[in-house]
Design goal:
The structure holds two protein chains of two kinds.
Chain A: H1 4-50, E1 53-56, E2 60-64, H2 68-75, H3 77-108, H4 115-123, H5 130-140, H6 146-153, H7 157-162, H8 178-202, H9 207-215, H10 220-231, H11 233-248, H12 252-258, H13 271-280, H14 285-310
Chain B: H1 54-85, H2 106-113, H3 119-150, H4 156-165, H5 171-185, H6 192-201, H7 205-217, H8 221-228, H9 233-244, H10 246-262, H11 265-270, H12 279-289, H13 296-328
Classes of the chains: A mainly alpha, B mainly alpha.
Chain lengths: 316, 332
C-alpha cells in the first residue's frame, strides 16, 4: 500500500506530461497540416465537385450536369489524340530510358576509372530546369541548328535522306518527328536519374550470387542476363512505375515546344496539356477538372498495383 | 514532378541514417559519394572473369570506355553550345564554329536592357521565390518531421498517412480548383500572386518525410537528458535535435531550392503579371510572344543564367542532390 502512492503520483504526473506532449505535437504540425488539408485534400475534393458542374470562372457554378463532362470526354476527338500521344510517349520513353539507365548503372557499378565523374556526369542534365532544357533542344534541333549541321559535317546526311529526312529537317516543327524529339530529349535528361535508381537496386544484389555464377562458368554477358537482370525485378518495377506516372504527366516540354495546342498539328497535345487547354484556352473549368479526375484515377491504380506487388522491396 | 510516390514505404525507418553520406562500400573511398545514400552493404560485383581470354576482355573494356566517354560528352555538349552561342552574333549563332566570330557580349546586353522583364528582374524574382520556399520547407518540414517521429499524440499515424497521401495527388488535378479558389480570394492579382504560389510550395510531404526518417534514426538519449533538465518540447527540438539533423536539412534545402528554382507548372499558372515572372517561365513566354523565336543568342544567355546557380550547387553539394532523387522520384 505504501508502494502504491508514489506509483500513483508518477501516473498522474505522466498524464499531464502526455497531455503536454500531445499539445506540443499538434502545435508542431498545425501549419503544415492546415496547408495540406486546404491545398491538397480540399482542392482534390473540390476538383471532383467542379467536374460535375458547368462552371464559369467569373460567375461560379452554372448548372449541375452530373457526368456530362465525362461523357463529353468520351466523344472528344482532341482528347483521344491527347491520349494517343501520351500513350505513345510513355510506351517508347519509359523502356528506352530504362534501358539506357540500366546500361549506365551496370557500367558505373564496375570498378572503372573516373567512376565518380561518370556518375556525376550522367546525372548532370537532370539538374537543369525543363524549360531551359527544352528551349535549348529546340535550338539544337531547328532546321539550321547544331544537330543538322553536325550530321551534315560528318557525312550522315545520306542515311537520314534514306529515312526521308532532308538536310534541314525541322525536328520539333514537323508533326511526324516532334514527339520523337521530346522522347529523345527526356530520355537524355532522365537516364541519369534512372541510373541512380538502378544503382540502388544493383547494390542490393549479394556478391555471392556472382561468385556462384562465375563458378558455374557464366561469362559476364550470361551473368548479366541470367543473374543480374532477373534479380533486378523489383527495381525494374519501381523504375517503370515512376516512369509511367511521370510519362502520363508530360506537360512542360509539350507546352514549350508546341504552345497550348501542342503544335504542329496537335502532335504534342498530351492529356495534361489538354487539361491546361480546357482550363485556359476553352475557359471550361468543369471540363478541365474532369480530365484531372480521370488522370487521378489512372495514376492511383498504377501506384496501387505497384504497392501491391512490391510494397516493401523498392529500389531506392 | 514534385508528386512522385515516396520511394520508401511509409513508416519504415531507413536502414542507415541519411547523414552518413560519406560512408560507402569499403575500399572505394570517396568514389561512392555520389550514391552514398545507398545502403553500404554490398560492394559492386568485381568484373567476373569468364572463360573468355584476356584479349577480348581488354577490348570490351576499351569499347565500354569509348561508349561512356561519348555519352558523358553528350551530357555536356548542349550546355557548352549554349554558353558559346550566348557570345555570338545572330548570323554566327547558326554556324558550326566553336569560337564566336566576332566575340560579342551584345546578347547579354540585350538580355539585360531589352528583354521585358530583363534578366536581372527575372533572376531576383527566382532567387526570392526559391529562397522563401526553401526556408519555409525547412521550418515547417522539421517541425512536422520531428512531431511525427518523436512526439506522441492521438491521431498521429492517421495524420501522417494523410501527409503521405498528398504525394499520390497529381498537381494537375489541383490546377482548376486552386485557380478558382485563388481567383475568389484575390490571390491572382498583384503581389498576392507570389503569396498564392508560395502557399502551394510552402511545404511538401517529401520534406516532412525525409526529416521524419532522419529524426527516427537519432538516438533518444540526448533528447531525454534535455527533457530531464527541464527543457520544454520546443527548446529540446530547437537546441538539441535540430543541430543534429543538419545533414537532412541540407538535403531538403538543396532539393527544395532546385525544385523551386526550376519550377514551371505552378508559376506558369499562378503568376499572371510580367513583372513577377521567374526565369523558367520567361523562357517559354519569350519564345511564345516575345519575338525571340529566331533571336537565339539572348535566349541562350537566359538559359545560362537559369542553369548557373543550380550548376554551382551541384558542383559543391552533389551528394545531397542524389539523396533528393531517392526521396522525390523523377522529374516529369
Amino acid at each position: 500500500m505504501t508502494a502504491a502512492a508514489p506509483a500513483q503520483r508518477a501516473g498522474k504526473h505522466g498524464r499531464t506530461g502526455e497531455r503536454q506532449e500531445a499539445l506540443a505535437g499538434y502545435a508542431f504540425i498545425a501549419i503544415p497540416m492546415l496547408l495540406f488539408l486546404v491545398l491538397n485534400i480540399g482542392t482534390t475534393l473540390f476538383a471532383f465537385y467542379i467536374s460535375l458542374w458547368d462552371w464559369n470562372y467569373r460567375l461560379g457554378p452554372q448548372e449541375l450536369i452530373g457526368l456530362a463532362n465525362f461523357e463529353k470526354l468520351l466523344g472528344d476527338r482532341l482528347f483521344h489524340t491527347a491520349i494517343r500521344n501520351t500513350a505513345y510517349y510513355t510506351v517508347i520513353w519509359v523502356p528506352l530510358t530504362m534501358a539506357v539507365g540500366l546500361f549506365l548503372a551496370v557500367i558505373v557499378n564496375q570498378k572503372i576509372r573516373g567512376q565518380t565523374f561518370f556518375r556525376a556526369a550522367f546525372y548532370f542534365p537532370a539538374i537543369a530546369s525543363s524549360a531551359a532544357i527544352t528551349v535549348l533542344w529546340i535550338f539544337l534541333l531547328q532546321p539550321d541548328g547544331l544537330f543538322n549541321e553536325v550530321r551534315g559535317a560528318i557525312g550522315l546526311n545520306p542515311l537520314y535522306e534514306a529515312m526521308g529526312f532532308g538536310p534541314n529537317h525541322n525536328w520539333f516543327g514537323n508533326s511526324g518527328t516532334a514527339m520523337n524529339s521530346v522522347i529523345i530529349l527526356n530520355a537524355w535528361t532522365t537516364s541519369g536519374t534512372f541510373m541512380l535508381f538502378y544503382l540502388a537496386s544493383l547494390q542490393s544484389i549479394s556478391h555471392e550470387v556472382y561468385e556462384a555464377a562465375a563458378i558455374d562458368g557464366a561469362g559476364p554477358w550470361q551473368a548479366f542476363w541470367k543473374v543480374t537482370f532477373p534479380l533486378l525485378k523489383p527495381g525494374h518495377f519501381f523504375v517503370a512505375t515512376v516512369g509511367v506516372i511521370g510519362g502520363l504527366q508530360l506537360f512542360d516540354q509539350a507546352l514549350i515546344g508546341g504552345g497550348s495546342n501542342g503544335d504542329p498539328q496537335y502532335a504534342l497535345m498530351t492529356v495534361v496539356l489538354y487539361l491546361y487547354n480546357a482550363a485556359f484556352s476553352q475557359f471550361n473549368p468543369g471540363y478541365a477538372a474532369s480530365i484531372g479526375v480521370v488522370l487521378f484515377f489512372v495514376i492511383l491504380v498504377i501506384s496501387l498495383i505497384q504497392r501491391r506487388l512490391f510494397g516493401n522491396t523498392q529500389a531506392a | 514532378m514534385r508528386n512522385a510516390p515516396p520511394p520508401n514505404p511509409p513508416g519504415e525507418p531507413p536502414d542507415q541514417p541519411l547523414g552518413n553520406v560519406t560512408v560507402g562500400a569499403e575500399g572505394q573511398g570517396s568514389e561512392v559519394a555520389v550514391v552514398s545514400q545507398l545502403p553500404a552493404r554490398a560492394a559492386p560485383p568485381p568484373a567476373v572473369a569468364g572463360p573468355v581470354g584476356d584479349r577480348t576482355r581488354g577490348l570490351r573494356r576499351t569499347i565500354a570506355y569509348v561508349l561512356i566517354i561519348s555519352y558523358a560528352l553528350l551530357m555536356f555538349v548542349p550546355f557548352a553550345w549554349t554558353v558559346i552561342t550566348s557570345f555570338k552574333t545572330r548570323p554566327d549563332a547558326l554556324r558550326l564554329t566553336i569560337i564566336p566570330d566576332p566575340f560579342t557580349t551584345a546578347p547579354w546586353q540585350f538580355a539585360v536592357d531589352t528583354l521585358d522583364p530583363g534578366i536581372i528582374t527575372l533572376f531576383t524574382n527566382s532567387v526570392i521565390l526559391a529562397g522563401i520556399v526553401t526556408i519555409s520547407n525547412l521550418v515547417l518540414g522539421s517541425l512536422g518531421g520531428y512531431a511525427f517521429a518523436r512526439l506522441r499524440f492521438p491521431g498521429r499515424e492517421i495524420l501522417f498517412l494523410v501527409v503521405l497521401a498528398t504525394l499520390m495527388i497529381p498537381d494537375q488535378l489541383r490546377l482548376v480548383p486552386l485557380y478558382v479558389m485563388y481567383t475568389e480570394l484575390g490571390l491572382t492579382r498583384g503581389l498576392a500572386q507570389y503569396l498564392g504560389l508560395i502557399l502551394v510550395l510552402a511545404i511538401s510531404a517529401t520534406s516532412i518525410f525525409l526529416l521524419r526518417q532522419y529524426f527516427l534514426s537519432i538516438p533518444k538519449d540526448l533528447e531525454e537528458a534535455a527533457r530531464i533538465d527541464g527543457a520544454g518540447f520546443f527548446t529540446t527540438f530547437r537546441k538539441v535535435m535540430l543541430p543534429l539533423a543538419s545533414p537532412a536539412l541540407a538535403a531538403v534545402a538543396i532539393l527544395q531550392f532546385q525544385g523551386t528554382w526550376n519550377a514551371f507548372f505552378w508559376p506558369v499558372i499562378l503568376l499572371r503579371d510580367r513583372d513577377h515572372w521567374t526565369i523558367p517561365m520567361s523562357l517559354y513566354l519569350f519564345r511564345e510572344s516575345g519575338g525571340l523565336v529566331t533571336n537565339w543568342p539572348p535566349l541562350m544567355a537566359v538559359i545560362v543564367i537559369a542553369t548557373i546557380p543550380i550548376l554551382v550547387l551541384y558542383i559543391f553539394f552533389q551528394r545531397f542532390f542524389v539523396e533528393g532523387v531517392a526521396a522525390s522520384g523523377v522529374k516529369g
